[in-house]
Design brief:
Shape: globular
Protein name: CAAX prenyl protease 2/Lysostaphin resistance protein A-like domain-containing protein
GO molecular function: endopeptidase activity
Strand content: under 5%
Organism: Paenibacillus wynnii
InterPro entries: Rce1/LyrA-like_dom (IPR003675)
Structural class: mainly alpha
Number of strands: 2
Keywords: Membrane, Transmembrane, Transmembrane helix
Strand order of the largest sheet: 1-2
Length: about 240
């Protein structure tokens, strides 16, 4: 894997860890009435997205190889044109996910429990978090990473299709890698679920293709949010039926 891809992954880990350790945990979480687990994820996601937005601005103004906000499409009209493709993907994805997810849950191949009490307020807060974190992740993994890779690799490929394929694969690897938990010092893997990585990779490929075709933030945000919301609802059903 190219060095700058590895650096991007480490940058996202280090920045999130630093934000969580020195800002979110001591100064935000203790002063909220929301469940500690939920609030930690929520505010860490917000700070991470702000950091990614800052990177976009800095790169746009300070680097020759610069991804720019001008290359993003924030018009809702572009999102509406993509809605049919998003809806079809979500339906097909969830049919496959529910079928294999149910089989995997019955075989105890993954943990479908939640780290907080399933009260109405917690469920609503976690659902809202899933919708919010979808947009926050898209700012970094699609809007920042894909635009940057296009700039970095523009001269490496003679055909645009090859460039697009390489960028989609690389951005998906970064997206999947961020769903592996590990400690840097000392190095230790704390979370690694192959089935989760498979799901994330399929989603990352679709979101990468969608973003390249539309450059629409709202399109990838909506697709990611729909999937996260549907998966959350499915896991709630599993908890009620299999627990």
């Amino acid at each position: 894997m190219p060095l700058h891809i590895i650096l991007l992954v480490l940058l996202s880990y280090i920045s999130n860890d630093w934000i969580n350790t020195y800002i979110v945990a001591p100064y935000i979480v203790p002063y909220t009435s929301i469940n500690t687990y939920i609030s930690s994820y929520l505010f860490n996601g917000i700070m991470g997205a702000l950091f990614a937005s800052l990177l976009l601005i800095v790169c746009s103004r300070g680097l020759a190889l610069k991804p720019t906000y001008q290359e993003l499409d924030f018009r809702f009209s572009t999102f509406r044109k993509s809605f049919r493709a998003i809806l079809i993907f979500v339906i097909v994805f969830m049919i496959i996910y529910i079928f294999f997810g149910t089989l995997a849950a019955k075989q105890h191949l993954f943990d479908y429990s939640f780290q907080f009490p399933l009260t109405i307020s917690n469920i609503l807060r976690w659902f809202l978090f899933q919708l919010l974190i979808s947009g926050l992740e898209e700012i970094f993994f699609r809007c920042f990473v894909i635009l940057l890779l296009f700039k970095l690799w523009d001269q490496m490929f003679t055909k645009p299709n090859y460039l697009q394929m390489a960028v989609i694969i690389a951005s998906t690897l970064i997206f999947a890698a961020r769903h592996i938990g590990f400690l840097l010092y000392p190095f230790q893997i704390t979370y690694f679920v192959p089935l989760h990585l498979l799901v994330v990779s399929v989603l990352g490929i679709f979101l990468g293709i969608l973003f390249i075709k539309t450059r629409s933030f709202w399109a990838v945000y909506a697709a990611h949010g729909f999937i996260n919301g549907c998966i959350f609802a499915f896991l709630l059903v599993l908890n009620k039926t299999l627990s």
